[in-house]
Amino acid sequence: MNRAYTTAQVAIVGAGLNGAAAAFFLAERGIRNVVVIDRDYPGAGASSRGMGLLRTFHANEPEAVLALKSLDVFTHWKERVGGSAGFRRTGFLWLDSADRRGALQTHVDMLRQIGSNSRIIDGAEIAERQPHLAAENTIAVYEPDCGTAYGAKANESLLVNAMARGVRLLTRTPALGLIAAGGRAVGVITPQGEIHADAIVLAAGAWCAPLARSIGIELPVQARRLTIGRVILPADVKHPMTFLDGRFDTSFRPEDGGTALISMRDDRYGQTIDPDQRKEDVDPAAVARGIAKIRQRIPAAERFVGINTWTGVDGFTPDFKGIYGQHHECRNLYLMAGGNEKGFKVSPAVGMGTAEWIATGQSRDIGKPEFSSARFADGAEVSGAAIGVDELI
Ligand SMILES: Cc1cc2nc3c(=O)[nH]c(=O)nc-3n(C[C@H](O)[C@H](O)[C@H](O)COP(=O)(O)OP(=O)(O)OC[C@H]3O[C@@H](n4cnc5c(N)ncnc54)[C@H](O)[C@@H]3O)c2cc1C
Which of 37, 38, 310 best tests ligand 1's pocket when mutated (most atoms within 8 Å of CB)? Predict the structure, then answer.
């Protein structure tokens, strides 16, 4: 190993939401000799490009626990972190076909057991609460405490408050590779020299896999292209809630001031790409198609006016769950990988869990088999092809 140009207790690669959350919660625990590096700037990856939907509704308990703990941080951001993440308690609906009541009830029973304020409402109550929604043959999981926040704001707020506690942030500093010795991760190579640290956190979003490969670790994280757009709402769409629509495969996030974000799923949505080749080239027809899709749920969408669209990339795993915690073989390497287009809503709890694991050697919330890198060890790879809607959510 060459001489270090700087040393730290913890080196974090990636200053997106995950890296920022780990830095903040490490500093909160008193671990302040932490350096965060980003090849660009905070939020340059997925974190400033997301839709910002916050829900606790999941079909599996481990992710629901992370979402619920994170919702508590979003709700009390000023006291827990400082500043603002732009949280709005709009209420959240998971809209679905009425014939899926049995499956949804199972999920809601699980959610209520862990303390989530979720319940199923029928089409009549949906129509009463949200008259602009078409609700025939529809039921919804209703989460009144959920809503939206802004990834870019949360990202910056976490870093500003981490830095106020002593964390160092190096922007425009790419990790060229990791350094391992004796089965442990011990450093990061940068153009300025090596950073040596007792623990390395890999939080490079869609760019995690090549960095892991630099020390011989295969992480099944693929970069996928995602698209969304902003529209102006007609004045008669009043107090809209945030929703995900399992039946029409679309989503809606109201903003302050009469605009909303909606799915713009052009033909390349979800395609695997080289994250360095991402272009802001949303197919113009996707705006019309996105509005046409959402018109099935909001008839007034025929009067939506499209403003702009953008693309982002996130890291995806074969089973659509994050890879968190200490790598099962490489000690001192901590993973925050695989946002799967839902990583914002859990990032505070994943940051807390990572900090806890580094500080104490374990974390109950992220130290679960569902998040372990070991689940992809030889012969154990989960096939994405077999995933149904209840595994996705
Ligand atoms: C269009 C879109 C919509 C989404 N909607 C939602 C939603 O509604 N709700 C939700 O919960 N989630 C949503 N997500 C997902 C969420 O935004 C991501 O899961 C989350 O932001 C991932 O955070 P991250 O910190 O892991 O990665 P990123 O934000 O991608 O950060 C990774 C950082 O690593 C840096 N980096 C990369 N390579 C290197 C290197 N070699 N050296 C140094 N730094 C490096 C990058 O510059 C980047 O800043 C959405 C994502 C997108 C793209």
Answer: 38
